[in-house]
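Example with several molecule types.
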Amino acid sequence: MPKTWRSHVLCAYAMAILAFLYLPLLILALYSFNESRINAVWSGFTLDWYLALFKNRRVLEALTNSLIVAFASTIVSTVLGTTAAIALNKYQYKYKSVINGLLYLPILIPEIVMGLSLLVLFSQAHIPLGKTSLILAHITFCVSFVVITVNARLEGMRPELEQAAMDLYATPFQTFRYVTLPLAMPGIVAGALMAFTLSIDDFIISFFVAGPNSTTLPLYIYAMVKRGISPEINALSTLLMLATIILVIIAQLLQPQHVSKKEE
Amino acid sequence: MKEMIRLQGISKKFGDHIIIPSIDLTIYDGEFITLLGPSGCGKTTLLRMIAGLEQPTEGKIFLDDEDVTKLPPYKRDVNMVFQNYALFPHMTVEENIHFGLKMKNVPMDEQKERVEQVLYLTQLEELRKRRPQQMSGGQQQRVAIARALVNNPKVLLLDEPLGALDYQLRKNLQLELKNLQRGLGLTFIYVTHDQEEALTMSDRIVVMNKGVIEQDDNPDTIYHTPKTKFVAKFIGESNFFEHEDGSTSVVRPEKLNLCPEDEENANHPEPQLYGTVVDVVFYGTIDKVFVRLDNSNQTVVAYQYFDDVKRWQPDERVGIWWQPQDEVIVHK
Amino acid sequence: MVAPTVLWLSFFFVVPLLIVVAVSFASRTPYGQVIFDWTFGNYARFTETLYLSIFADTLIVALITTVLTILLGYPLAYFIAQLPKKWQQPGLILVMIPFWINFLIRSYAWVIILRTQGVLNTLLLKFGLIDQPLQMLYNEIAVMLGMVYALLPFMVLPIYVSIEQLDHRLLEAASDLGASPFTAFRKITLPLTMPGIAAGTILVFISSLGMFVVPDVMGGAKSALIGNLIQNQFLSARDWPFGSALSIVLAVLSLVLIVLYYKALSSQQGGGKNAKDMA
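Resulting structure tokens for the full complex:
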């Protein structure tokens, strides 16, 4: 049976690649529980490094900064992105391709370019680097992701649903309130979760636009990594990974099921 | 008869593309009227203009003597059953049906009563808590009709409501719909491209082609005396015989009679044409006999019932005759 | 309603890029102040051997990374796409998750494994396979490994989408017509999933051009790429005009690749798309 050995080889290969993707992350997490501070030798289980994190004033400060920036940029980018996606779906714009280009370009352009150009803007506009500049920057790169996510949801929505609502005496506002919005909601929530994840996880752009008093968790990790290996970094990275994984899974579950067009 | 809808010089253009040049049509109270035509003939556009989902480029629409041309859909007392039902997926059957009443701010007691009534009428009482995606196509179709009916609209618009269902179910629902319409005495405007459906259900059929009304008559007249070649072609099967003056005779295949070429003492008129049988296809209740006419490339088709004397075989020579009253002259 | 977002992106995305363009034609004082004197000097500096070699290195690393991610990513994408429907979503999430964890943490994970007192060296020493710890970090190979590791999900996702959209009846038809599984793959699956490979290539190639985290964490002083060079100009050297010129080149290169990709895509799908519009 040639088909069987072929699929076995494929399966083994795929598993090996998944192991390649996950093993380093698992090792990172595992060593956050290792007692030994310097060695890679396993010397016993401990939660000390996690406890140390919660006593570390600078870690807590970074956490607070990260959360403030993430919440603020999530709220603003979700509102901006959702209204843009709904508008683009509903109305015909003369310069639609230009608008689309503007919305998608921030995703396509290298992050480092976006980071430094914002740095240049803030310095030219005399906006001091700090939480405000971070929030402005994060909103800018999150908006596009929200637009895409909400748009995917809206495009999957048949226009007859809104027409049916209007036919059943719903005013345009009621149509939006009772039909469009509830149906778009999973996409909006997924977009917001994505924005939150991107923001809390962002290193590259924050690296350019953060000020001395607005260190976020990834920036703090970077500073620690530059100083050398320590189990505290492992613990902090593990927590950040865990948060990311949970957020991504929730966002994924909210997305429309990935079914191909031919089956619809 | 009371007028329910009057379309006055309605036309529709999308950019330079003319969908409907100009249409006048009056629809009476309690009528089951069908807009019939191939896809792209403008029938759905016309229906959507009556619903208010589309604006006519020119012309006026009157509903119960009121000019509604400029009214948005939510201010028109008509309801629509959409082609793919367009049920709200985030609401249960009951919530779907309540929607219109809720938007119109009907008092809660009355809402409940009317929803109960319509659930009973459409046999959906057991399914009221279900969501559309948990139901079969036929059940969803019922919900779509219930959701429209509960509002007591002056006119119910149906856009190919049975198009997505399989043959058997479609047959049953055709009858159900017709009975429902008769029982309630409601005005139905029904859009379909299925001529059989139109013939069985309608009081009146408006045959449309390229945005123009080809014929507007009752089903019997449409079938037996088509006014144009298009109508004769689109509805049922027909044989066409071109005349030199540009007119065409239409004879339905069931009206064509076949006889042996060399028949003697026949008790029927002389055959008008002669030809050779090229094919005989069995269709259950009938045989379709295809005959190539002499001195031309034309093939005609005749239906033979089994109680007719003879079953024809390919290559047999036949004479073809028909009664003068079964021949219809059409133009164009 | 789309206006607030358009305004926002104009101000925080387009305007900054325009300022960077302007700065790239400026020069600087010894203290790092920008003077707008409209010079091509910053672009002229690219011809210096040091920068040319960094450019070349970056392109080579990006190219090798792209090839490796295709080789590793295609089978994985294929494997997920042929799983039963209910397993595809979890499989996809499994590939997605590393994509969302930032490059910094993922590079750092490799530092733990590869450094001299790291997990791998400790294991090798313990089993007596080596006597001396190996120097596995801070070289080009480490950077390559880190890049492939970081960017693999970018390749898997688009390829998965293109395989998943493939009409499996085509393969059945091919094998019915006597094609061996390998021939069927080469003649049907591969050409039809080319758009996915192309999309993945664009994503991986552009991302590796601008990458600075991986070389920063896993590479040595010698394995600097354009990304690190830019980072340096802005943060240590304080030579913004030169850094701006570098990043404009990077951005233009990326955009050219994207435009070429869309051109190729639309010329390929032009017929099909029109047919769909008609329906």
